[in-house]
Amino acid sequence: ATADALLAASPTPSATPSPVPPTPSPFPSATPPPPVLHLSYIEAGDVWALEPGVPPVRLTGSGNVSDVRLASDGELIVYVVTDANIEFVEMRSLGFDGSDDRLLLGADALASLYPVEGFLRYTLADFSLAPSTHRVLLNTRGVFEGPGLAKSDDLLALDADSGALTRLLAP
């Protein structure tokens, strides 16, 4: 009697759901090859390139390189050439393979960006490459006759592919 009462009180079983057919898996996509690690560095005043399994390669020969940056794609190197007094001479770029070495920004162009107003000239303060681009972001500083540092707190964008210079923030 208890079993009959429990059976009567329980809901009627519904139709048993049919199993869901498995979704066909798409064809396996080709896995992109891992990116090749590219490094650039300065040794004895020259730009060098290094990648796994290959001996280091000297890309410049002036002996006056003071700063270097590598674009996030690993294909473009931007570097700064200075004189014997460590004064900015020019900013240049070249391919990781050493090809297409070209002038991006010379000292004269940089010095003529703003009126001198008490400075001897303007020069490069710092630079960086924007991620996933060949866009160089840089700022300047005024150079006094004596000691001191006068950052301009400006921001310029230099397209390393086209050479276009754009002022993003005035001093």
SSE diagram, text form:
Blueprint lengths: L1 H8 L29 E5 L2 E6 L2 E5 L6 E6 L5 E7 L5 E8 L6 E5 H5 L9 E9 L5 E9 L6 E2 L3 E5 L5 E5 L2
Antiparallel strand pairs: 1-2, 2-3, 4-5, 5-6, 6-7, 8-9, 9-10, 9-11, 11-12
Report on the structure:
There is one protein chain. The strands form 3 sheets. Strands 8, 9, 10, 11 and 12 form a 5-stranded antiparallel beta sheet that branches. Strands 4-5-6-7 form a 4-stranded antiparallel beta sheet. It is mainly beta and 171 residues long. The radius of gyration is 31 Å and the shape is extended. It contains 2 helices and 12 strands.
- Give the CA-based shape: extended
| Major beta sheet summary | 5 strands, antiparallel
What kind of assembly state do the chains in view correspond to? single chain
Straight-line N-to-C gap: 94 Å
Number of strands: 12
Protein structure class: mainly beta
Average pLDDT reading: 84
Concise description?
By secondary structure, the protein is mainly β. It has helices at 2-9, 107-111, and strands spanning 39-43, 46-51, 54-58, 65-70, 76-82, 88-95, 102-106, 121-129, 135-143, 150-151, 155-159, 165-169.
Features:
171 residues, 42% strand, 5-stranded antiparallel β-sheet, 2 helices, extended, single chain, mainly beta, 4-stranded antiparallel β-sheet
